[in-house]
Structures are given as C-alpha cells and as structure tokens.
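anyone else get weird line breaks when pasting these?? whatever heres mine. first is seq + tokens for prot A
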Amino acid sequence: MAEILSSEQIQDLVDKIVEDKLDNYFRMSRPGFEIMSGHKVPGHDLGEFCMTTDTAQGIHFYQDGQCKISSKKSIELYSGDKAGEEDFSIVIQTSHGDVKITAKQNDVVIQGNRIMIHASELLQLRSDTKVDMSAPTVSVLADNLDLIGISDAHLIGGECDIHGNTQVEISEGVDALLNTSVVERLSNLSEDIKRILIFTV
C-alpha cells in the first residue's frame, strides 16, 4: 500500500523541487529588455546569460558553449582606433569546426589594401555564371597547371611566349590520327576535370 504523504511533506517536496530548479535562476525585467540566467532553453541546455529586448533582439550565452547574437537589421563591429600597423583589430578564430559566411540573396564584399587568402589544403573558387579576374599583373605559379576550356579557350596577348623545358605539343581535333596520344591525354584530363567539378558541387 502506497504511503500517504502529509500536507507538510508535500510542501517540503515542492519546495525542494522549486529550489533545485531555481538554484541559479535569475531574472530581471526593465522597460525595453530582460536579462535571464539559470533557465532551461529548448535545444540549448541552460542559459548562462541571456539579454533579450522587447523586439526579440539580443545576445545569448548557453551552458553548452553556444552564443547567439541577433538583430533585426544589421550588426556592426568597429575596432582599431588605437591599433598599430602590425595589430589585428578584429580576429575570428575557431579551434574546431568550420566558419561559414552566407548572404542568401545579396553580395559578400571583402575590401582592403591587401587581401590574402591562405589555405593549407584546398582553395576553391566556384561560380554558377562567371569568375572575373582583372588586374594590371596576374601571376600564376604551380608545380602542375591545367587550363581547360570545355567549350572554348582563348589565349590573346600583345606578345605571347610558349616555352617547354622538354617539349611543346599543340594539337587539334583534325589531327587525331596523327596525335592520338596527345588527344587522349587532353580528353582524359578534360573528363577528370569534369568529374572533379561534379564531385565538389
């Protein structure tokens, strides 16, 4: 037979549950914003510090290590008034995990005196329509360099120099019978590039 609790025991049990739930709970409301901590947030464990405005903007820190900053229009960061020439005024760094910058319907603009992008494994530029490079001087240096135009390829210059340390081979479709090995190599290379492009979509 189940033990019947007295009203005092029930109240003690309720008080203990409430105390455990509200052990680190804090809430402060002011006109225009609210600050909370120690509260359960669906999908984010406990909230450590959550400041939310009446218009649902704010900054939230969660106990599971996540941070969210939300605004209705824009977020602007200004820094570097007292920085030296060798200082980094703004640093974005992740120890683990990726960094993603997305503008779903608009542009992403990176502007600076010198822009350097360094990749230890792969640097990829992709576009659904066009990749445009324009500068007084463009230098490309590689151990292995493949330039392929699946449909057309144009090489135009005031002066054009083509040099091969060992040999230079030039072929066209009508020379297939005479230059089978060259055509096969170019065709295989073209197919490899196509497969790479499809694989990296």
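and prot B, same format (seq, then tokens)
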Amino acid sequence: MKSTIPILLLLATAVFAEDTVLELDPARTQVEFTLSDVLHAIHGTFKLKRGTIRYDFATGSAAGEMVIDAQSGDSGSEARDKRMHKNILESGRYPDIVFIPDHVEGELSKASVHGAFRIHGKDHEMTLLVEAVPKDSEMDIKTHLVVPYVQWGMKNPSTLLLRVGNKVNIDIHAQARIHETDTTPARSR
C-alpha cells in the first residue's frame, strides 16, 4: 500500500498541474446570426476580434475572454445594418460583445462553459454548450447561443409592416491553437 500512495500523488499532481489555453484564430472563426421575421429569416455575420480561453476540467476553472466586434455586424443590407448598429446594438457606444468564462464542466468533446455574456454594456449570466475536436495542436470548436436581445434592454426593430423575433440565434465555429500550461509552482534550486 505504501508504494501506491506516491504513485497516486504523482498522478493527482499531473492531472491538477496543467490547464489548457486556447487562442482563437479570428481569421478562421465564423460568427453567424439568424433573426426570424414573419416572411423569412435574416442571416448575417460578425467578426471575432480576439479570444483566449483558459480551462481546467480537473478543477472546473475557466478564464479569459472571447471578443466579437459589434461594429462588424453585416446582414447584407446596408439600410438594415445601419439601423442595427445605430438603434439596436448601439455599436458606436458598445463596440464589443464579450463572453467571459468562469467555470467549465463535462469533457473536451462536450462541455458546459458558464460565464458572463456582455452585450450592449451589460453582463448576462450564460452557459454555453461547447463541442470541441482536437486536431494536432489545434482545436475545432462549435457552440450555439440564443440572445434574448429585447428582454436584455435592446430595441426590437419591428415596424408596422415588418415583424421580427425578439431573440437572435448565434452560431460560432472557431479554430484555436492549443497551449498546455504548467501551473505548478517552480521548485527551489
């Protein structure tokens, strides 16, 4: 039994000693949104500014941020986009949409990532269901979220003739570089 204890301690230290850092690649990340209206759905995109996420499944800790450029919102209609930026997102005043993770559960292939979703200057508690597939030193990441923008204080762009939903669906497909970081304290020499 005595010889088993040091091995178990060594294994436990190895599991808890490393966390993983993901650097999201803005050039290879798609952020797509869908807003339903009575006749059809409006589709558009946003661009990722930057993103670094740190997580450790052993401890459940998560940190970092994923920053989306609110001013990059593009639905394919210049007039509609102008209204979206000026009247709904107020992207001149609130240029970033940010997810800040604080806790992770599950496993790499399917994880729940809890955190704050900041949009229009306010934080909202949110849990993202994330699917991830490692490929060499990179990771393919997908998640879907629903933003109840009207409930969160933004204007509904509906008019007398055009009726749109009060929630926006967002799909994120990101590519990230994986970095494993040793978090054990440095030993005295």
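btw re prot B: Residues 1-17, 184-189 have pLDDT under 50 and may be disordered. The chain has one domain: 19-182.
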